[in-house]
Each structure stands twice: as structure tokens, then as C-alpha cells.
Amino acid sequence: MNKFDWRKHKGAIVATALGLAFIALVGVTVLLLPQKPPPIVINVKPPERDEITYFGVAKTVFAQDDVTILEKHTPYSDGGVGHLINHPDGTIKETAEHYPLRAGASQAVLKSKSTWSADGKSVKSGEVYRPDGSLWFTYKDLGSGKRQDTFYFKDGWKFSQSEFKPDDKEKETTYYHPGGNVWGKEVQEKSYTSYSEKTLTVFDATGNIKLCKSEVVPWKTTVDGFDPGTTSGKLVSYYNQDGKRTYRQFYNSNWNWSFQIQGCLQVVHVYDRFESLKKTYEVEDAQDTVKLKTTSKPDGARKVFRDTGKFIRRVSIEKVNVQGQPKERFLQIGTCSYELDAAAARTEYEDTERVYDIYEIAYFARPAEQELRDRKTESQAESRGVLGLRDDTDPVKWYHKQ
Fold first, then answer.
1. Fewer Cβ in 10 A, N or C end of the chain?
2. Residues 295 and 316: beta-carbon distance below 8 Å
3. What is the pLDDT of residues 32-74, one digit of tens each?
4. What pLDDT, on a 0 to 100 scale, did the predictor assign at position 139?
5. Which residues partner with 61 through β-bridges?
6. What pTM, to 2 d.p., does this model score?
7. What angle do CA 391, 149, 110 make, to 5 degrees?
8. In angstroms, rounded to a whole number, what is the distance separating the alpha carbons of residues 200 and 134?
């Protein structure tokens, strides 16, 4: 039987005992030392000041210096309220605004909001809402003097977006289908402080294929090689899936009462696959009927057609809605009266000979841009009068001067 001999381990036992005694002594010393009390945190609420105005209570929140404004909440004459939030140094940080509280409503509708630059001198981004709460339009500072303007319809459809510098002579706007694909692109030209259309390009539903491009033709001004003579109007070019021009039309500036639209077709140019002029149609466009007058070729060959006779052809070009009413455009082609060949030799034809010409109905149809133009007009027709009077001294009203 093995027995523990404490005498053999006397040194280890003594050392262990001393160690335990030291630890106990340190523990007692720590407990007896005075303890540092926990820090006392005092939250000082920024001073506020209320001012009774004719339109309600205006509240201002100051910094601890009682001078620097951190927040300002201002009631307006229409019952709305503007909110100004500043940086600690008193420069503008952001704004918000609410429409007047509607009867029976528990919460006011947000009217606008914005965020400002670090120095508080300019708007970096902003949103404006309609009285029904739907997003109306937005503004964004893209830097280097460039801005972005975006418009939305009430159902949330992002319809248009422009990116430009206010000093630029031209501004491009992109229009979108409800699904987000590009519908059209418009280039506007600046005249003094306003913009007017220069070109409008329309794409198919995928947004990838260019269908047609309209160009404004000023009075007595040649555009893309087309000389309008002593008139003005619109030049419309049409393209195939490869992006090559197949034909183009020129509309003068006359008003068509039948379709309530400006522009009557005068000339159609048809091109070959190399985009060289192949044939020209001259027409008379009045009310609901386009009458073919002549056709010609670059070599000088020419045909002249009757606008009366027993054998007039009248075919439908297209059906459209005009202010909710169905309308139809027609192409009228009479028989050839006479023909000139490239050498100017003349050949006469009787009406009974029924000599016509080769054509495609699409050459005389109006461009597929009217729906886009109608939507554009609709977007511009929304009155901003609901946003109230302009006040450039109030940062909350930033949207009036953007």
C-alpha cells in the first residue's frame, strides 16, 4: 500500500500555500480600493421656439448656441407645412413639404422632398408628388453642371427623362413604354429660355429598332439634303430593321381640320437598298384624301396623273381616332395622263387605257408617332398650379426654380 509522505513534498506544499495567500491578499486589496463611479450622461434637448403666425404655429429648433437654426417647420397659407432641416453649422441639409391635411385624413400627403449639397447651397436631388400621393417628377444633380429631369404618370409609369446642361443649345429627352423599353428620343433646340422640337425618333416595342425620325424643317431651310422651297414643315424618314432609310415624307405646316393635326403630305422619296433615291411621289393632301399627282425618277422620267375620270382608284391608307372619333385616310389615284421618259419624249394616255403606277400604301401613311405625341402633350398639360405660388426665398419651394 502506497502512502503519501508529506515530508518529501514539503517545499511544494509551502510554495502553493504562499501563492494562495498572495492571491487572497490582492483580492482583498482591490475590494478595499475606492471604485470609480459610472459617468453621468445628461442629454440636453436643443432649444425650441414657437411663433404664432396667421397660418398656424411655426416651430424653430436651435443649436445649443441658441442662434444656429437646426430645423424650421413653417405653416403655409394653403394649410400645408414646410420642413427645413439644416446641418449643425446651419446650412441646408434637406427639406420636406406636406399638402394641407384633408378632412377625415389622419396623415397629410407628402408634397415634396429634397437633399442638398454638402455646403447647403444647391439641391442634389428632389422628388415632387401629386395631391393623390403619386410621384410626379424628380430632379437630380449629375455634377459638372448637368441635371436629370424625370416625369411619371399617376400609375407609376416612368414616361420621360432628360439629361442636359441648362446652358446647352440642345436637350435630349428619352420617352419610355410602360414596361420600360425606349419608345422615342427627342432633341429640342433652345431659343432664349424655352425649347422647341428639332427631331423626334420613334422605336418599336422592343426599343431596339428605329421606325422613323421626324425633323423640323424651318422656312426656306435645307435639312438633310431636302430643300422645302418657300415653305416649312416636317421631314420624316423611315428605316428597315438594318437601320437603313427606305423612304421619307415631307409635310408642310398647313393645318388638317379633318384630323386636327398640323402638316399635310406633299412629297415622298423612295430609296433603294443602297439608300440612293429611287423614286419620288408628289401628292395633294387635303382633309381625308391624299391624291397622287406625279411620280418621277432621278433620270428625269416622269408620269402625270388625272384627278378626275371614270377609273379613279380610291383605297384606304389607315384608320385613326381623332378626339375619340374614328377617322379614315384614303389614297386616290387617277389614270396616267401622260409620261415623259429620260429623254423627255412624251407619251399620251387615254383614261380608258387605265395606266397607273406602282406604289405601296405605307408610303402615304402618317408616321407612327402620334400616340407618343399625345402622351407627351398629356404629360405637359398637368397643371403645376396645385404646387402653389413660387417663392424663391423659401428653400422648401426649390422645385419652382429648377
1. N
2. no
3. 555 666 666 555 567 888 888 888 889 999 998 989 999 999 9
4. 98
5. 48, 71
6. 0.83
7. 55
8. 28
Contact 73, 83 (CB under 8 A): yes
Task: Kindly give, in sequence order, each residue whose CB lies less than 8 Å from that of residue 283, ignoring residues fewer than 6 positions away.
Answer: 265, 266, 267, 268, 290, 291, 292, 293, 364
Going by C-alpha positions, the residue among 177, 180, 239, 254 that lies closest to residue 209 is 239
Q: How many CA atoms lie within 13 A of 122 on its CB side?
A: 11
How are the residues of the chain apportioned to helix, strand and coil, as percentages rounded to the nearest 5?
15, 45, 40
Q: What Rg do the C-alpha atoms of the chain give, in angstroms? A: 39
Name which of 326, 330, 306 is nearest 318 in CA terms: 330
pLDDT tens for each residue of 85-137:
999 999 999 999 999 999 999 999 999 999 999 999 999 999 999 999 999 99
Question: What single letter denotes the amino acid at residue 179?
Answer: G
In sequence order, what are the residues at sequence separation of 6 or more whose Cβ sits closer than 8 angstroms to the Cβ of residue 25? Answer: none
pLDDT at 18 over 80: no
- 375 by DSSP, 3-state: which? helix
Q: What are the beta bridge partners of residue 88?
A: none
Contact between 142 and 148 (Cβ < 8 Å): yes
Instruction: Output 207-214 pairs: Cβ under 8 A, ≥24 positions apart.
Output: 207/177, 207/181, 207/182, 207/183, 209/239, 209/241, 210/239, 210/243, 211/238, 211/239, 211/367, 211/368, 212/236, 212/237, 212/238, 212/239, 212/367, 212/368, 212/369, 213/237, 213/239, 214/367, 214/369
Pairing of strands 313-322, 158-164: unpaired
Tens of pLDDT, residue by residue over 128-174, are 999 999 999 999 999 999 999 999 999 999 999 999 998 999 999 99
pLDDT reported for residue 28: 45
Q: 250, 226 in Cβ contact below 8 A?
A: yes
Backbone angles phi, psi at 73, to 5 degrees: -120, 115
Q: What confidence score (pLDDT) does residue 4 get?
A: 44
Helix (H) or strand (E) holding 373: helix 370-381
Q: Which three cell numbers stand for residue 140?
A: 437630380
The whole-angstrom separation of Cα 250 and Cα 268 is: 7
